[in-house]
Amino acid sequence: MKNKINFGAIIVYYVIAVICRYAAVKTNLLSGIENPYLVILLRGVGPALGALVAIKIFSLNNPMSLKGIYKNAIVPFAVYWILPAVLIAGVYYFTIGKFPILLMFTVLVYGLLEEIGWRGFLQEQLKSLPKFTSILIIAVLWFAWHLNFETTPSNMIFFGIIFFGTWGIGKVYTSTGSLLAVAGVHSLNNFFRNGLHDTELILIVVLLVIWVGFIILYNRKYKTAVNPA
């Protein structure tokens, strides 16, 4: 039996997410905050806040987990947070001469705040729909949440990235059930705030290969443990 979609909860979630986003990027509300890392986090807090409020108001049985299928949260934290932070910080060091560790983890926490909403809540709420329909709805809502509606080629490319990101990150969430895992994958592009160059693209490919390989190997082990021969 398929779960019934709670449209009221989704509307509450999205309204809160958009209001928070609008306040953060379209007003001067955050202009008095001197800490740039706090500003980054506040720009992405809406989806998490909207999800938690919607779950509370509608008393939803909406599973969320940092560890997912892993025995504890240390595994996804090490693989999807520590590993990219160390590698990317190393790239930054060799290019600009310093280790931006605080920026690394700020970006990761930002990704987690978004993923609590987009995957942990919205994907869970829409999982009874056909996969393509669910992906399309999430992609459109996620794109609109950024509040950039100019019909420019770069925006169309961004929507394409959002669409394939929704599919790819959604696959990671379905495979791992871990918010730490999807936050790490989500944050991969956000690490490189000054654009992507050959070194950054190589690093992204390396991390994706490591992560996909880890997911495949761990899932085989997990399924064997759950369903032994």
From TrEMBL:
Keywords: Membrane, Transmembrane, Transmembrane helix. The keyword Transmembrane applies. InterPro entries: MmRce1-like, Rce1/LyrA-like_dom. It comes from the Bacteria. The chain crosses the membrane at residues 7-25, 37-61, 73-93, 129-145, 157-180, 201-218. Residues 99-192 form the CAAX prenyl protease 2/Lysostaphin resistance protein A-like domain. Pfam families: Rce1-like. This is CAAX prenyl protease 2/Lysostaphin resistance protein A-like domain-containing protein. It comes from Flavobacterium ginsengisoli.
